[in-house]
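Appendix B, example 12.
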Amino acid sequence: MVVRNEVIYIDDREDSRKMLISYLQQAFGDEAKVSAVGPKPTIQETVKSLSENWKIGSIIADERLNESGEADFTGQELCVALREVYPKLPIYILTAYPDSVSNKQYTIESILSKDQLKNKDGDDFRQFSIYARRYLGTFDDIMSERGEEYTNLLRKKIAGTIDEQGKERLLKIETELVKPVAYEEVVDSKLTEKLDKQEKLIEEIRKMLEN
């Protein structure tokens, strides 16, 4: 089973990544490994890059990802795109300007200011730490339950005992398993190759269950 315990912090400035990663690691404690990365030039490239990591349990994005010119999008815009790919993944905005960020589209769990994050003895830091760890565990539980449900449905299909509702559910889960690499604007040869590998993996699981 894949343990989704890697938290990705995305910031366009290297100095911010180096400075804030230790605070984020303390917030998540031993329950997750925090990695800091820069954005790709476009949303499509960034989403594709993130979707290749199957251990992601949470994503934290700086709001002003386009400030340095490294990317052509904001943190909020990235979160909207990520939510299309990851409906249940805990996603946060980290910013030095919290008043300039809104969550009208309800795509993020919360907005955290960098000053709050750096105040490790403050109530805001403690609250974020509690909720972030809880959401991380909940997402892993959801994905684990889905994997178990998928295996049981496959067994029923192979045995010929699956009903129409089960078939619809199996198809839905298989679609969701492939969805993280199927962001519609990122179709290229590498994506096709990855989808082929996904299909082969599913076929291997079926064969294992048959034996």
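Confidence is low (pLDDT under 50) at residues 178-191. The beta strands are 6-10, 33-37, 56-62, 91-95, 110-113.
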